[in-house]
Write a structure and sequence with these properties.
- Helix content is 54%, strand content 0%.
- The chain has helices spanning 12-18, 23-28, 37-40, 44-50, 55-67.
Length: 68
């Protein structure tokens, strides 16, 4: 399997298709509407900013989770 690495531009919907197990990380930052159509089209960077999280730290956390 190829190594997958997400960026701040990765859409939440794409991220959940890459690894549905990442949902708890997103829920932990307060993103409770993962099924909402609008959140599916939001980038990781946008979601981080909306929830007051540093986008680079969130991307790092997600990538570490995916690789684990």
């Amino acid at each position: 399997m190829a190594k997958v690495e997400v960026t701040k531009e990765t859409l939440i919907g794409d991220l959940l298709r890459i690894d549905a197990g990442i949902a708890p990380v997103l829920l932990d930052i307060g993103m409770h509407c993962l099924g909402c159509p609008s959140s599916q089209m939001e980038s990781i960077g946008e979601a981080a900013m909306v929830h007051g999280i540093d986008p680079d730290e969130l991307v790092d956390r997600i990538n570490k989770n995916i690789q684990a």
